[in-house]
Amino acid sequence: MRALDKDTWRLGVVFTAACVTLALAQGHGNGNGSSGIGLSVKPEAVQKRATLPPPLNARQARTIGKGSLKVSTANSPGDTDSFWTEQIDVDGNGNVDEASLIWDDEDKVLYTYTEGTFTCKNGATDTGALLVAAYGTDNSWQRPPGSGFWVASLDKGQCGLHTTNLWGCKFDAKGNASACGAATVDAKNGDIAFATASTGSKQ
Question: Are 87 and 114 a contacting pair, CB within 8 Å?
Answer without folding.
Answer: no
